[in-house]
Specification:
The protein is an alpha/beta fold. It contains 14 helices and five strands.
Length: 303
């Protein structure tokens, strides 16, 4: 059947994440060949509640069209939502989307953990974890996930641990960074990139990462040469402290002799570079002091 856009109730649109790339691709397809797959709706009085097909509805609206093809499911809203989620589970819906659905079913229809566990054919622990995921993250962060500015995977892997560690101030600062980074869509790619060790440091040293980014963004993102030098020196000191802490925690316990030898070799290399750095800094400082003394002497009055 054909429905007009004003007849649609899009109350469950917020349960899905968005992807600009997929929406552009769908928009292009609809403009060329028209709508091929109908959306799914259920009846609620004079309104038609959209269960599936929100991307198609948005694309139709962007194309300035008023009619969308739809198929009605003769089910209650609860059954329709659960069935649609079951059919979509093979497409890799994220845990945060599952959490939004769990929360919606609890709040709108009063379903408890036991009932949801039975409906999803999952354990109560699974339901509880999904619910906890969406209650741990601040609404501002969830909104960035929903809009596609921050990947669901990145939010679950990096921001949820911060939120559960009562570091909500860092989570909020990450959210502000995400909103700025969304202009060029780099946040998720940068977060996903790098080695496992780098990603772990992002979580463990979130304060350091944010402090560094804040310094880089100060004064329009431009730092003087001296400020960049001080920034790099702080990072070097922080890395040295972290390496020493890892050694104290037994990072080399049980390792092979070859790994210990490589660690010692790299330590010597780091020591050599730091010694060169210290020598150069001492020379720069000494030269400045001597220059200052010479200036004072040249302007002093002879006895």
């Amino acid at each position: 059947m054909d429905l007009e856009l004003h007849q649609l109730d899009r109350r469950y649109e917020a349960l899905r994440t968005r992807s600009a790339r997929r929406e552009r691709r769908l928009l292009s397809s609809l403009s060329e060949v028209g709508q091929q797959t109908p959306i799914i709706v259920v009846r609620d009085g004079e309104r038609w509640v959209v269960v599936d097909g929100y991307k198609r509805v948005r694309a139709v609206h962007r194309l300035a069209q008023d009619i969308v093809r739809a198929t009605e499911w003769a089910l209650s809203e609860t059954e329709a939502l659960l069935l649609e989620r079951t059919l979509r589970s093979g497409d890799g819906d994220s845990a945060i989307e599952q959490g939004w659905l769990v929360r919606e079913l609890m709040q709108r229809f009063g379903l408890g953990l036991e009932e949801l566990s039975r409906r999803f054919d999952r354990s109560m622990s699974w339901v509880s974890r999904r619910l906890g995921l969406v209650t741990d993250l601040p609404p501002a962060v969830q909104e960035q996930v929903r809009l596609g500015a921050l990947g669901a995977h990145a939010a679950m892997k990096y921001l949820v641990p911060l939120a559960r560690a009562n570091a909500s101030h860092w989570v909020k600062r990450w959210a502000r960074y995400v909103r700025r980074a969304a202009k060029w869509r780099s946040c998720t790619r940068r977060t996903r990139g790098g080695s496992a060790a780098v990603r772990e440091r992002v979580v463990q040293q979130a304060g350091l990462v944010l402090k560094a980014r804040a310094e880089l963004s100060r004064a329009g993102g431009e730092l003087s040469a001296a400020e960049q030098l001080l920034h790099d020196l702080r990072i070097a000191a922080s890395v040295a402290r972290r390496v020493r802490r890892r050694l104290c925690e037994g990072a080399l316990d049980g390792t092979r002799d070859a790994e210990r030898a490589r660690a010692l070799e790299q330590s010597h290399e780091a020591y050599f570079e730091l010694e060169r750095l210290l020598t150069r800094l001492k020379r720069e400082t000494t030269e400045v002091q001597h220059a200052g003394s010479d200036d004072q002497d040249s302007h002093s009055t002879p006895e």
